[in-house]
Design goal:
InterPro entries: Leu-rich_rpt (IPR001611), Leu-rich_rpt_typical-subtyp (IPR003591), LRR_dom_sf (IPR032675), LRR_N_plant-typ (IPR013210), RLP_Defense_Trigger (IPR051502), RVT_2 (IPR013103). Its main location: membrane. It is a single-pass type I membrane protein. Keywords: Cell membrane, Glycoprotein, Leucine-rich repeat, Membrane, Repeat, Signal, Transmembrane, Transmembrane helix. The protein has about 1250 residues and is an alpha/beta fold. Among the domains are: about 200 residues, Leucine-rich repeat, LRR (right-handed beta-alpha superhelix), CATH 3.80.10; about 70 residues, no CATH class; about 130 residues, Leucine-rich repeat, LRR (right-handed beta-alpha superhelix) (Alpha-Beta Horseshoe); about 240 residues, Leucine-rich repeat, LRR (right-handed beta-alpha superhelix) (Alpha-Beta Horseshoe), CATH 3.80.10; about 45 residues. Helices cover about 15% and strands about 20% of the residues. The chain has 17 helices and 75 strands. Helix 16 packs across helix 17. It is globular and about 140 Å long.
Length: about 1250
């Protein structure tokens, strides 16, 4: 009979398991589930199925490990994205688990379980009397789960971390209704949005609703005094409200009886002296019976909303050993009294709160009761140094974290009475480490002082007293000088990090070689130089060795590599090493997992092929060999030792000119390869996808790959998040298979030969895409007139294609998050829609938005919006009307409005351009005077006002633009003198146009985190760093007689001044010769007179000097021969005279066209010889009175009319046929109208002013 019943139960368990598997089909629309739980089939023993453990005696299921069913632990970003979008919810029925009567452990973490799990009977799991471990972490149960869990009395471990996908917009939960099961020992409620208080389950006691005690009788110490106390109470007629008895002195059971004074509004009229008797609930109890319920040992409440009152409610949880309340809302004083009740506490974390008051000395003394508390974290609070005195009462404190505590003072402080082993004071604003203020910590083993403002030389003398120091972290400070040799006195050191300082000098005689116990040495990002010491080869225990970003020279000693066989992590990047480095020196390093060598020099090469056929004993996980592989006469190849590597997670061989076919075998050999960078090599052929891969990051840019993009990408790289095929020779259309790469974040297909229309699916299916680059192809179509739905899109670059059509007004692009939009160099028409002016209004990067629409056919007024664009370029279009004064210019750095049809004055709103670097309003129809406030823009580097209708004189305020490098105010109607103060424009002191990055992570961030993860033993779980894209500024400036385009970094080095084609008069100020940094100076086509200033010989950097078409006189100064960089020199059409300078240096390259139009000049290369007298030919004054022919007036007038009529007819026909010429003609007419208008306006204004002056006089 028993066997028959057991068979029934086993069959019920089988059916339940198969139903659980069947429920996975509910999410098949969002995730491939066919391959999940393949062993769960309806035959065989289910105890042999995966994720199941059974009792070996009864055969019943005891352990169900159903966590991470969708393999999200490897890609947590997928998990969060699905959470936020509610796309994937697993409707798991909780009642299915009631069939597993002997179940002890149930793990359902890292799935997409939703509210169905609660509503389907979660509370009924209390029937599983043996269930001890329940893990529901990382799910998406939005409903309040806590009341349903109170009855699971058998639980010992409960993990609810991230159970509801909590974020800042999620609802919060009051857990006061949650009664902690009496047997629970471990509770994790990380990031659930909880508040309220925790209470133990009091199932043995009943609670009668009533008030808290009005007064409380002092607890007695011994049970023998109870009778005395009660007698005194009767004799003195005291009101008896409550009796608390310390349970340590009691035997047996104590009835839970509590007396309370009658509530003031409910006092009995006949019996006013009587008290109320309550059946007491758990809180306030001191009996043995209740204390048995308090078994909780570990409580993790990180990232919730608990305040300081919560700690008061924890005082009854005396069994707690670990308490983590980091990232909550605690404020006020350090809770010493409350914490002192938790006498079993071993670890306390109150970091990331708002605690700021040190308790009184008396309260601090209560901490002496915490004899087991060894670790305390108070990071990111606001205590001052008095908190140290309070913590000194902790008798067993070993580990203290005070990081990010800026109120502790600028120096370390005494810590008498604390026998610390670990002290973390990173990011605490420390500035010095005086010898007399170093705390007496004789047992200190770990000292972390990173990310402070410590300066001067390394304080080795101050640290010499720490004889047991094993780990020293002084990274990210401002230390200078060399490493003192006294570091060898710290002979116990195992970990040393001096990264990111300004240390310099050689490592010889520094004492490192005496640190025989050294395991980790990080000297990266300093200024060390010289050769690496040979004695480093004696550090046989060294595992982590990072000397990147220094100035080490010479060869890398082979003995250093051969002898350090314990190495796991090596980084030699960005130094000044020379010679050849044999990678085969690592052949016997069995533990090597990480190697990075990125070179910024051509003097060092890594030899990977010598000796031929060498086989490594290591299995690398991270390998970076960038710009360093030895160049071979017959072409470099992919390192052959990689054929023996099968555990690679990241491989970067970019910038090496490697040749041959794309090495697809790398993906085949390394199943877990997540990052492959083949950038900037010479790989040829077509892209072949033959093996399914787990690759997430694939960069093949900058090669010679031809053919088309494969159609079946999703089948071979389904997990891809970054895909870069840019700068190749790909042709054809963008395949529709690109739509199925649903995890794609970044797609770069720019700089190829792709054609056709952009498929609609690219902007509908790639819902997670953040960056899409299609620049510099020949794509066409109405791409922006469609309905777009890229809610997560931050960057869209469509520039330099053949796109046409209007831009959609009601597009569904969530422009609030769109940060960069580049549609330049296309054929878009119509007006700019208002959504473009409101881009990235909700973006984290709201101060870094960019809109580039240069060189299209857009027209109309530019719409105002909320966005303050950092980069706004709408030049070379047909926008008209006044420049809008409502544009938000708060964060604007680059403003390009040139080559449009804007009219009117420069708006006063430009006074708000306090951050602007580039201001281009050239090639418009702007009028009036140049505003003086332009000279008050403190950061302005480039000012382009040319080809407008500005009048008046050049404002002297422009002389205040000290940082300006390019100024163009040519082709206007400016009059008056050239300001002498222009020599104050000394040029920029620092670079500003290097690049404008829009990458998510940078390489430095990535490698720093790699090193950090190495220290905590999880180096290989990081996502790859994101490539840095750039938006480079571009302007046009006329120099060397040509309008040239300057883009990107060159703008930091280009300088010029163009005042040409105006009506400036007077002499050229000699002060202009003080512009020694200038490269181009153009004063041509004015009315300047006088001599050429001799001071121009000081223009040592000048390359182009144009003074043509003026009225300059005198000689050409021979001192100009000192201008050794001058390439273009134009003095034509002036009144210069005398002998030209000798034809030597740069003057030997100038032809006669540089001097033509100056009849009184002589000497080579002109034909005028300075040794002969030049004949002056006077025009004839004879007037011929005889006519040589007679004119037929009728024929003359007839032919003239016919010619005029035919000319006009042809002119109209041409304008009708050619819209471009028609546009230019209308612009010319409009310009003439404005010129006449302002001429008359100024004339009338002048006459009116003259009349007023005469009248007043």
């Amino acid at each position: 009979m028993l066997g028959w019943a057991q068979g029934i139960y086993i069959e019920d368990e089988r059916k339940a398991l198969l139903e659980i598997k069947a429920s996975l089909l509910e999410v098949s629309n969002f995730y491939t589930v066919e391959n999940l739980l393949p062993t769960w089939v309806d035959h065989g023993k289910y105890c042999d199925w995966e994720r199941i453990k059974c009792n070996t005696t009864s055969g019943f299921v005891t352990d169900l490990s159903l966590g991470d069913m969708f393999s999200m632990e490897k890609d947590m970003e997928d998990f969060y994205v699905f959470h936020s979008s509610h796309e994937l919810i697993w409707p798991l029925n909780a009642s299915l688990f009631l069939n597993f009567k002997e179940l002890r452990r149930l793990d359902l973490s890292l799935n997409f379980i939703g509210n169905t799990f609660v509503s389907s009977g979660l509370e009924r799991l209390s029937e599983l009397k043996k269930l001890e471990n329940l893990n529901l972490g990382y799910n998406f149960i939005e409903t309040n789960i806590f009341p349903s869990l109170s009855e699971l009395t058998s639980l010992k471990i409960l993990n609810l971390s991230y159970v509801n996908g909590y974020n800042m917009n999620s609802p919060t939960y009051d857990i006061s209704e949650f009664r902690i099961p009496e047997n629970l020992e471990v509770l994790d409620l990380t990031e659930n949005g909880c508040y309220g208080t925790l209470q133990m389950q009091g199932n043995r006691f009943t609670q009668i609703q009533g008030l808290d005690y009005v007064q409380t009788f002092s607890p007695v110490v011994k049970a023998s005094t109870i009778c005395i106390v009660l007698s005194l109470t009767v004799l003195n007629k005291w009101k008896f409200h409550q009796l608390d008895v310390k349970n340590a002195f009691l035997n047996g059971d104590l009835n839970e009886i509590v007396f309370m004074e009658q509530p003031p509004w409910f006092v009995s009229y006949h019996y006013p002296d009587l008290v109320c008797k309550l059946s007491k609930a758990f809180y306030g109890s001191g009996s043995q019976e209740t204390s048995k319920l308090i078994r909780l040992k570990s409580l993790n409440l990180v990232r919730n909303h608990f305040n300081e009152s919560f700690i008061t409610a924890l005082t009854t949880f005396t069994s707690l050993k670990t308490l983590n309340l980091g990232f909550n809302s605690l404020s006020g004083p350090f809770p010493s009294q409350e914490i002192s009740e938790l006498t079993n506490l071993e670890m306390l974390d109150l970091s990331y709160n708002r605690l700021n008051v040190t308790p009184s000395n008396q309260d601090c003394k209560s901490l002496m009761r915490l004899e087991r508390l060894e670790s305390v974290s108070l990071a990111v609070n606001n205590f001052n140094k008095s908190i140290i005195s309070c913590l000194s009462f902790l008798p067993s404190l070993n580990i203290l974290d005070l990081s990010d505590s800026y109120n502790l003072g600028r120096t370390l402080f005494p810590m008498q009475g604390i026998e610390l082993k670990t002290l973390d004071m990173s990011s605490s604003g420390l500035r010095s480490l005086p010898l007399n203020e170093v705390p007496n910590l004789p047992y200190l083993e770990v000292l972390i002082l990173s990310r402070n403002n410590l300066n001067g030389t390394l304080p080795m003398e101050a640290l010499a007293s720490f004889h047991h120091l094993k780990s020293l972290d002084l990274s990210y400070n401002k230390f200078v000088g060399s490493i003192p040799s006294t570091i060898k006195s710290l002979s116990s050191l195992q970990v040393v990090s001096f990264t990111h300082n300004a240390l310099n000098g050689s490592l010889f005689n520094d004492g490192f070689c005496d640190l025989k116990n050294l395991h980790e040495l990080d000297l990266s990002d300093n200024m060390f130089d010289g050769n690496l010491p040979q004695c480093f080869s004696g550090l046989s225990s060294l595992k982590f060795f990072d000397i990147s970003l220094n100035q080490f020279t010479g060869i890398i000693p082979p003995s250093l590599i051969v002898n350090l066989t314990s190495l796991e992590y090596v980084d030699f990047s960005f130094n000044k090493f020379e010679g050849s480095f044999l990678f085969s020196l690592f052949s016997n390093h069995k533990k090597l997992q990480f190697f990075r060598f990125e070179s910024g020099s051509e003097k060092i090469e890594v030899e990977t092929e010598e000796p031929i056929g060498w086989i490594p004993m290591f299995q690398l996980k991270y390998l970076v060999l960038s710009n360093c592989i030895k160049k071979r006469p017959n072409g470099s190849v992919v390192p052959s030792f990689l054929l023996h590597q099968h555990k690679l997670l990241l491989l970067d061989v970019s910038h090496n000119s490697l040749e041959g076919q794309v090495p697809n075998w790398l993906l085949k050999n390394n199943k877990n390869l997540g990052v492959l960078k083949l950038k900037d090599n010479s790989f040829r052929g077509v892209i072949h996808m033959r093996y399914k891969s787990n690759i997430k990051w694939l960069d093949m840019s900058g090669n010679h790959i031809t053919g088309t993009i494969p159609e079946n990408l999703q089948s071979f790289i389904p997990l891809i998040t970054y895909l870069n095929f840019s700068s190749n020779e790909l042709k054809g259309v963008i395949p529709t298979s690109m739509f199925d790469l649903t995890k794609l974040w970044i797609l770069d297909l720019s700089n190829n030969k792709l054609s056709g229309e952009v498929p609609k699916g690219l902007f509908t299916n790639l819902s997670r895409a953040e960056i899409i680059k299609l620049s510099n192809n020949t794509l066409y179509g109405n791409v922006l007139s469609r309905n777009l739905s890229l809610d997560s899109l931050e960057t869209l670059q469509l520039d330099n294609n053949c796109f046409t059509g209007n831009i959609g007004i009601n597009t569904s692009v969530n422009s609030r998050y769109l940060r960069v939009l580049d549609i330049s160099e296309n054929h878009f028409t119509g007006r700019i829609p208002s959504w473009m002016s409101n881009m990235c209004s909700d973006s984290y990067y709201s101060d870094g938005c960019e809109l580039l629409a240069r060189n299209n056919h857009l027209d109309g007024p530019f719409p105002c919006g909320k966005t303050s664009f950092e980069f706004l370029d709408i030049s070379q279009n047909s926008f008209y009307g006044p420049i809008p004064s409502c544009i938000n210019l708060e964060f604007t750095k680059h403003l390009h409005l040139g080559s449009n049809r804007f009219i009117g004055f420069v708006p006063n709103a430009f006074q708000n351009l306090t951050n602007v670097l580039t201001l281009d309003i050239s090639h418009n129809y702007l009028s009036g005077r140049i505003p003086e406030f332009l000279g008050e823009l403190p950061n302005l580097r480039i000012l382009l006002l040319g080809k407008n209708n500005f009048i008046g004189s050049i404002p002297e305020k422009l002389c205040q633009l000290n940082n300006a490098s390019l100024i163009d105010i040519s082709n206007n109607f400016l009059t008056g003198l050239i300001p002498r103060c222009l020599n104050n424009i000394t040029g920029p002191k620092q670079l500003a146009f290097i690049q404008n990055n829009i990458g998510v992570y940078g390489p430095d961030f990535f490698w720093n985190d790699i090193a950090l993860q190495y220290h905590i033993g999880d180096i290989f779980s990081l996502p790859p760093y994101f490539e840095q894209f750039e938006t480079r500024d571009e302007i046009q400036f006329t120099t060397k007689n040509n309008p040239l385009s300057y883009k990107g970094n060159i703008l930091d080095y280009m300088s010029g001044l163009d005042l040409s084609s105006n009506k400036l008069t007077g002499e050229i100020p000699w002060e202009l010769g003080m512009l020694t940094h200038i490269l181009a100076l153009n004063l041509s086509h004015n009315k300047l007179s006088g001599p050429i200033p001799v001071s121009f010989s000081n223009l040592s950097q000048i390359e182009s000097l144009d003074l043509s078409s003026n009225s300059l006189s005198g000689k050409v100064p021979s001192e100009l021969l000192q201008l050794t960089k001058l390439e273009v020199f134009d003095l034509s059409y002036n009144n210069l005279s005398g002998r030209l300078p000798e034809r030597k240096a740069q003057f030997g390259t100038f032809g006669k066209e540089s001097y033509e139009g100056n009849p009184l000049l002589c000497g080579t290369p002109l034909e005028n010889n300075c040794t002969t007298t030049t004949q002056v030919i006077k025009p004839s004054t004879r007037k011929d009175t005889e006519k040589s022919y007679d004119i037929d007036k009728e024929s003359f007038y007839g032919s003239s009319c016919t010619t005029w009529f035919m000319f006009m007819l042809g002119f109209v026909a041409i304008l009708y046929i050619n819209p471009y010429w028609r546009r230019r003609w209308l612009e010319f007419v409009e310009e003439c109208m404005y010129t006449c208008y302002y001429f008359l306006y100024d004339f009338v204004k002048y006459v009116k002013g003259l009349i007023l002056i005469i009248f007043h006089s």
